[in-house]
Design brief:
The chain is of the alpha/beta class and about 290 residues long. The protein has 9 helices and 12 strands. It has 2 domains: about 110 residues, 3-Layer(aba) Sandwich (Rossmann fold); about 160 residues, Reverse transcriptase/Diguanylate cyclase domain (Alpha-Beta Plaits). It has a 5-stranded parallel beta sheet, sandwiched between helices. Strands 9-10-8-11-12 form a 5-stranded mixed beta sheet, with helices on both faces. The protein has a two-stranded antiparallel sheet with strand order 4-5.
């Protein structure tokens, strides 16, 4: 399934990790120290990193790997169990943190999640290259446009039909753009749309994609994300927009509807469910979030 680099100095632990992940279909490379790690990163889709290594600080190595490759997911596997250690690792660029001794099923699940995110990053990078070639970017916001979204959703539906989910869709609408245009003018409203696009992108992970659907509407594709994770992301986005003035001192709000991919979803049915969730959110007021049934 994925090419995994295991950085672990204890041979017994390294063997357990290798056996666990090979049973899950992954290909394993092993490194017993910090020496040569950067050279071993080529083609790797997930890194598993022990933070306690001989003659080298694991946190420093984590930061060095992240500086060399900003995208590869790094799963920390460590006997360091304090919250402080976990927070430092995650703040330094780790994707996930697993403590020793580990359960094989948990490690397998977390590595699968990391591999899905990496696959989404690869697809997104390819999409950006395709968009640049076809000029399928929205000129007002710099985001991929509706046509690009249709291409990407078709790919994601195919992935989910193959059991490579989960993924979720968030449909976002600016609640009071008409009022904003009336108060400060259409040009200022256009600038507000561009600023909200920037806020949406800043609130998302590198593996997520924000599309300009049209008018005051945006669509977010969250790979490797369940409905519950989509709700959390949507709440984060709503809060970020609410707290940020986008037209001078004027503040606006957005509402969002969330739908998780189903195995029988088409791009059209998924969009319909996400839009229905958005309608449900807006029926409760401005700045609300709802989940599609």
């Amino acid at each position: 399934m994925a090419e995994i680099l295991v950085i672990e100095d204890e041979p017994e632990v390294r063997e357990l990790v290798r056996l666990s992940l090979e049973r899950d279909g992954h290909s394993i490379r092993e490194v017993g120290s910090a020496t040569g790690v950067i050279d071993a990163l080529g083609g790797v889709e997930v890194v598993i990193l022990d933070l306690v290594l001989p003659e080298f600080d694991g946190m420093d190595l984590l930061r060095e790997i992240r500086a060399h490759d900003p995208e590869v997911p790094i799963v920390v596997l460590s006997a360091l169990v304090t919250s402080r250690d976990k927070v430092e690792a995650l703040d330094s660029g780790a994707f996930d943190y697993v403590t020793k001794p580990f359960e094989a099923e948990e490690l397998q699940a977390r590595v699968r999640a990391a591999a899905r995110v990496h696959e989404a990053q690869v697809l997104n990078r390819a999409l950006v290259e395709e968009l640049e070639a076809e000029r399928a970017l929205d000129p007002a916001t710099g985001l991929p446009n509706r046509r690009a979204m249709e291409i990407r959703l078709a790919e994601e539906c195919f992935r989910n039909q193959r059991g490579l989910g989960p993924s979720s869709l968030v449909f976002v609408d600016i609640d009071d753009l008409g009022e904003l245009n009336a108060e400060v003018g259409i040009d200022a409203g256009d600038r507000a749309i561009a600023e909200i696009a920037r806020l949406l992108k800043a609130a998302c992970r590198r593996s997520d994609v924000v599309f300009r659907y049209g008018g005051e509407e945006f669509v977010l594709l969250l790979a490797g994300t369940t409905a519950e994770g989509g709700l959390i992301a949507a709440e984060r986005i709503v809060t970020a927009v609410r707290r940020s003035p986008v037209a001078g001192e004027r503040r606006v709000s957005v509402s969002a509807g969330v739908a998780e991919f189903r195995s029988d979803d088409t791009p059209e049915s998924l969009l319909t469910r996400a839009r229905s969730a958005l309608d449900l959110a807006r029926s409760s007021g401005r700045g609300e979030v709802a989940l599609a049934p």
